[in-house]
Design brief:
Leucine-rich repeat, LRR (right-handed beta-alpha superhelix), 7-stranded parallel sheet, 8% helix, 6-stranded mixed sheet, 2 domains, elongated, single chain, mainly beta
Length: 348
């Protein structure tokens, strides 16, 4: 699942506390009552909406967070896992909550179980007035939006967004460049939202995305170019990357990935690989790179890789540049005419 936190998209906590710091203004109280009465949800599974006491201060309602100044402005709405299946189209309450900083409508996705679908309002309309929003979680909500729509909706309406979680939202690619406008975005989770056979390019370089790169990257069967340069991703590289058969260009340099390099043997079209300046470790089995006859550039420098120097790389006929320095490789380097080699520092 997509975590371009992307702490790749980190994003593991929700807002469950309720801060009662003053009386909820009557207009906000009315909007929340309207929202409650409009939503279609399973009362037998509800733990928040069923507890809302309309005669009480709405800042005390479960899932509602208020700020601490003067009248308690509602700044957080957490209706996660409330089994909401509809009714948002009958209320304008959410879109009028212009002070909202956090919005969580996420739900556990179960195939065959009805989920909330954003049609009226659609994804863009729901967000258009929430300019203060810093955290958005819509996991399991059917957003039904393509790359241009959802990326532009986020970048246009939510300039302060820091945390984004849209797993299992039925989004499609390609990811629009407008997403890069979200300069505050530091955590992103797209989970299984981008299971799109047509997605060919994934570029999230020079962003604050962090977290674990999700296994669902392996479902992007048409991906030919992916760049995650100078991000804050960490953890192991997904084994599912072995399924990226159409990959031509791969650059994950200057991040904090750790663990072994996964098998890339099925990516027969690969021409460019750069895993430099990470924390990768372990040996590089020749079986993981078999058949990569189109490789021209390989940079594995500045990691903690060990074992014998991967001499099989030097046998690739198309190879032009290879960088293996600042690792713990052992052995001799073949002298191959025409290959520009960086590799002595860090060798044993």
């Amino acid at each position: 699942m997509w975590f371009l936190s992307l702490p790749l998209l980190v994003l593991l906590f929700g807002i469950h506390a309720t801060l009662a710091s003053g009386v909820c203004p009557s207009d906000q109280h009315s909007l929340l009552v309207q929202l409650h009465n409009s939503l279609e949800f399973d009362q037998s599974k509800s733990t928040k909406l069923v507890r809302w006491n309309f005669s009480a201060d709405c800042c005390e309602w479960t899932g509602v967070t208020c700020d601490g100044g003067g009248p308690g402005h509602v700044i957080g709405l957490n209706l996660s896992n409330e089994s909401i299946s509809g009714g948002i189209d009958k209320s304008v309450a959410i879109s009028r909550k212009k002070k909202l900083v956090t919005l969580d409508l996420s739900m556990l996705y179960r195939p065959g179980v009805p989920s909330l679908k954003l049609e009226k309002p659609n994804f863009a309309t729901l967000l258009q007035n929430l300019t203060q929003l810093g955290e958005l979680r819509l996991d399991g909500v059917n957003a039904c939006a393509n790359g241009n729509e959802w990326c532009q909706a986020l970048s246009t309406s939510l300039p302060n967004l820091e945390v984004l979680s849209l797993s299992n939202c039925f989004l499609s690619g390609p990811i629009d460049p407008s997403l890069a406008k979200l300069q505050s975005l530091s955590e992103i989770r797209l989970g299984d939202s981008l299971q799109n056979a047509s997605l060919k390019t994934l570029v999230l370089s020079y962003t604050n995305f962090s977290g674990i790169l999700p296994d669902s990257i392996g479902t992007l069967g048409s991906l030919s170019r992916t760049e995650l340069v100078d991000c804050k991703f960490n953890g192991s590289l997904p084994i599912s990357m072995a399924n990226l058969n159409e990959l031509v260009y791969l650059d994950f340099s200057y991040s904090t990935f750790s663990g072994p390099i996964p098998s890339l043997g099925r990516s027969k079209k690969l021409m460019y690989i750069d895993f430099s300046h990470n924390q990768l470790s372990g040996e590089i089995p020749s079986t993981h790179w078999e058949g990569l006859l189109n490789l021209a550039h390989v940079d594995l420098g500045c990691n903690s890789l060990d074992g014998s120097i991967p001499s099989f790389l030097f046998a690739i006929p198309s190879l032009q540049n290879i960088h293996l320095s600042f690792n713990q490789f052992t052995g001799r380097v073949p002298n191959i005419p025409g290959v520009f080699f960086f590799g002595y520092p860090g060798f044993e």
